[in-house]
Specification:
The chain has about 350 residues and is an alpha/beta fold. Helix content is about 55%, strand content about 10%.
């Protein structure tokens, strides 16, 4: 799509009435699942939440408490015209094969919020069903809260298979049902969304940011600076900078900081991200494009995630996390601060 004018779809481009005569099964009730199910319900769409049998899923009681119709995955998929898969990537194939595949008949629509399983051929839908994607570019709690506030979050839309001839119109109706056409929906493909999403997570948003923060923190501590000071300088203040970029891009951020900080940005920042780092970024992208990362992650998950769990434990016990937890307990808006306040309330006579 590069070099062409980007089409953005809004409310005027979507007809939610296309969705209202149909039943939507939302498979999963996590971050995205709860937001999609509740927003669709509030938009007047008939929704069934598909989960593991009651007693096997803590999500079951939460969905029932919201007044939603909750059924086992296979039953929900059979009853639905539109099936939205909102389970973790590593579990999607098993859920699909055990509870969804048999329910896919001509005229039905299979939807995703991430292209991972379709693009990497973990899931191969039948040829006579529509296969589409609506991917909100926001955590689920914001998809929900923005909808409740009368707004929405941006999303991506893609059609992998248009068996009906109107798969895009139906996907846009779904996007309207969860509020995303209020903010704008951008067209993409399953391949483009999957590969760019994984790259962004690994190189910038998660892997890149956390590694940069940790390296900066460790450098200051190793040089003799207090860990608490290093935490504030390398992690705590990051939100201030990101918020500025979110509001107005890098130009607005640089306009808002001191001249000293801006000069350091221009002169020192690029020396960190030199040719070696850019070459490594290209290698990571190549791993994603070839499917090597997907195969590695799927195999890791099949083995029960021993390396994943080990790395999680190690990172959660890093000095920056221990110092941060202590400092955040003093901040009433943080998770630790809220917990500390609740404990004080309980302990109060």
């Amino acid at each position: 799509m590069s070099g062409t004018a980007l089409r953005v779809y809004y409310d005027a481009d979507a007809d939610i009435s296309r969705l209202r005569p149909r039943t939507v099964a939302v498979i999963g009730y996590g971050s995205q699942g709860h937001a999609h199910a509740l927003n669709l319900r509030d938009s007047g769409v008939r929704v069934i939440v598909g989960l593991r049998q009651e007693g096997g899923s803590g999500s079951w009681a939460r969905a029932v408490a919201e007044g939603l119709d909750v059924q086992p995955v296979a039953d929900a998929a059979r009853a639905a015209d539109v099936i939205m898969m909102l389970v973790p990537d590593q579990h999607a194939r098993a859920v699909y094969e055990q509870g969804v595949a048999a329910a896919l008949k001509p005229g039905k629509t299979l939807m995703f919020a991430h292209g991972f399983n379709v693009h990497f051929k973990e899931i191969a839908p039948p040829r006579d069903v529509d296969v589409s994607m609506v991917a909100p570019k926001s955590p689920g709690h914001l998809v929900r809260s923005e909808f409740q506030a009368g707004r929405g979050v941006p999303a991506l839309v893609a059609v992998e298979r248009d068996a009906s001839g109107h798969a895009l119109a139906d996907a846009l109706a779904y996007a309207a049902g969860i509020g995303c056409t209020r903010a704008g929906v951008l067209p993409t493909t399953f391949r483009e969304e999957t590969e760019s999403d994984l790259f962004g997570e690994q190189v910038v948003l998660c892997g890149g940011v956390t590694s940069l923060i940790t390296a900066g923190f460790e450098t200051l501590v190793a040089a003799g600076y207090d860990p608490e000071l290093a935490y504030f300088e390398c992690l705590h203040e990051l939100k201030l900078i990101v918020d500025l970029m979110y509001r107005g891009g890098m130009t607005f951020m640089r306009h808002s900081i001191s001249d000293t900080a801006e000069y350091g940005d221009y002169t020192r920042g690029p020396t960190l991200i030199g040719p070696g780092v850019r070459a490594r970024m290209r290698e990571i992208l190549a791993d994603i494009q070839s499917g090597a990362f997907a195969r590695e992650w799927i195999e890791e998950s099949k083995r029960g995630g021993p390396n994943f769990q080990r790395m999680r434990r190690e990172q959660n016990d890093h000095l920056i996390e221990r110092v941060g937890a202590k400092l955040r307990a003093m901040m009433p808006w943080s998770e630790e601060g809220k917990a500390a306040a609740a404990e004080e309330l309980v302990a109060a006579p």
